[in-house]
Amino acid sequence: MEKDIRDIDKNMSNNGLTATEGIKWFKPYEEPLRLSGFQYFSEDRVYRRLPLSKKVLFERVNNNLNILSEDTAGGQVAFRTNSSRILVRAKNKIGHDMVNMAASGQNGFDLYLGQNGERLKFYGITKFDVKYKEYQCEIIANLPVGQIRDVLLNFPLYDGVEYVEIGVDDGAEVLPPKPFAAPGKIVFYGTSITQGGCATRPGMAYTNILSRWLNREVINLGFSANGLGEYEMAELIADIEDASMVVLDYEANAATTGRLEASLSGFIDIIRKKHPHIPILVLSRIQYLADFYDETLQKRREHYRKFQLDTVEEKRKQGDNNIYFYNGNDLYDDYFDEYTVDFIHPTDLGFWKMAEGLHEVLKKILF
């Protein structure tokens, strides 16, 4: 007899539904819901992290960026409701195909709830059969009726979304979310780690954690293995008119190819031309296990850390007083080897450690 864990432990079963009587469905961009994290949605009407108007450009520069821009990392939907149930029905583009990342993080949505000004707390995920790209899930049910709650849904980190709708009780109040703590967007540019690999669910990517803790909109421009410092990407970031801060976290992809040293100073200058005063944080990469036992890698890592620090110090000497450097090595402690799934990509614990350190850094810079 073959084992099916879903028969043994019901907590391992999916939360899919076929019948949804008494449910009213909303698209994320329909009022009073607030869709955030997709800079170009208003012009393109697709859940995509790069604009369609630049698709041909990036086909020439690096078509992997076009492919990865379909992944919806950083996308969020927020609203308030007194519904007793919250459902999601969606269709993904790819499906689960990663050996080091759970489907709940790659392909799923997760849900946070808050009430009476308390912090948002994690309440559930979409649990569905990964053989299918299209699904309908009841994330939570049996909430006390009549209490207005803050709702936050995070989009999948490593899959595209063809469509998604959020369901609540028919007749429930649905209200706009509370506003962000401040206007403007914090833009993160970087690598697979920036994108969220390999969190077990979207809310545990460090950029999403920071978005919750700071109550700020975040634009996630992390591109797995393709944070290579192309100047066309710098121009794209510079064109985000309401950017309030930029975090550059791309050493892990660009250093060993020589692109970090070739691009960093110019990348910063391009952003500065259109954003002369917003803070820019240059973040060196987190520690890898290989740094611990390979002396050559240790020396290389120290070289790139010093290069980034020196670049920032030079910019400050030239009069840029709103550029900063942070040593990513300091985000982890002596137990860093326990914080990844594959010696490189953080687990949820690793992302939590990153967010804890960066939260203090960003608070000092922004406030």
Automatic annotation (TrEMBL):
SGNH hydrolase-type esterase domain sequence ranges: 185-363
InterPro entries reported for this sequence: GxDLY, SGNH_hydro, SGNH_hydro_sf
Name of one Pfam family that matches: Lipase_GDSL_3
Domain SGNH hydrolase-type esterase N-terminal intervals: 23-173
Domain of life: Bacteria
UniProt-listed SUPFAM superfamilies: SGNH hydrolase
Protein's name according to its UniProt entry: Lysophospholipase L1
Protein species of origin: Anaerocolumna aminovalerica
Origin organism lineage: Bacteria, Bacillati, Bacillota, Clostridia, Lachnospirales
